[in-house]
Amino acid sequence: QKEVEQDPGPLSVPEGAIVSLNCTYSNSAFQYFMWYRQYSRKGPELLMYTYSSGNKEDGRFTAQVDKSSKYISLFIRDSQPSDSATYLCAMSPGEYQKLVFGQGTRLTINP
Amino acid sequence: DSGVTQTPKHLITATGQRVTLRCSPRSGDLSVYWYQQSLDQGLQFLIHYYNGEERAKGNILERFSAQQFPDLHSELNLSSLELGDSALYFCASSPTGLAGVNEQFFGPGTRLTVL
Fold first, then answer.
1. Closest by alpha carbon to B7, among B91, B86, B80?
2. How many CA atoms lie within 13 Å of B101's alpha carbon, on the beta-carbon side?
3. Helix (H, G, I), strand (E, B) or coil at B89
4. How far apart are CA B98 and CA A96, in angstroms?
5. What tens digit of pLDDT does each residue of A63-94 get?
6. pLDDT digits (tens, 9 = 90+) for A16-43
7. Nearest residue, CB atoms, A97 vs list B102, B103, B111
8. Which of A43, A51, A98 faces B107 most closely, judged by CB atoms?
C-alpha cells in the first residue's frame, strides 16, 4: 500500500465548476501538506502549503487538512481552462525532509 | 518561475553511458532535493543535501550519486545508464532558517532519454 493515495482521474469539468481534489495517507507522522500544479512537461508549481490540520484559502483555492481522517483536499472555485493540469498532493513529516507525493490527478476544464 | 534552475533541459544518451545533471537553488536556499518522475512510479525522492552535506537518501540507485558544491549548486551523476532510467529529474530547494517551514520549490526539470 502506498503512503499517499490519490485518484489519477482523469477528471473533466465545465468552466466555472467547483473542483474537489483529494488525497488520503497512512503515515500519521505527516505534518506538512502541500498541493502542486504541474503542466505538461513542466516542473511542479507550489499552490498551497498547510502545516498540521485546518483550512487555508488563497484566491480561488482552498486547502483542507483533516489529520484525524488522514485526508486532505483542494477545492478550486470558478474553475478556468487555464487550471487544466495535473494536481499533485505532497506531504512530509518534518522540516527539511523529503516530500512524499500522490500519483497526481489530471484535471481538464472545458470551456 | 520558481528561481530554481536546471541544465540541460533535455538529454539523450545511450545505455551504459554516464551523464551529469546540474541544479542551482533559489538565492539563499541551502537545501537541495533531487526527485525522479516516471510514468509508473510518479515523483520519487532521491537525495537531499544541506549546505554541502548529504542529509537523507531515498530510493537512489548505487549507480547514481550527487554532491553539493560550496556555491550551493548541486549535480546528480547517473552512470551505467539503463533504459529504465529514462525519466524527468527535478531538483527542488527550500527556504532556510524559518521554523516550521518545509516548502520546496521545483526547477523545470531535465528530461533524460536513454536509448
1. B91
2. 12
3. strand
4. 10
5. 999 999 999 999 999 999 999 999 999 999 87
6. 999 999 999 999 999 999 999 999 989 9
7. B102
8. A43
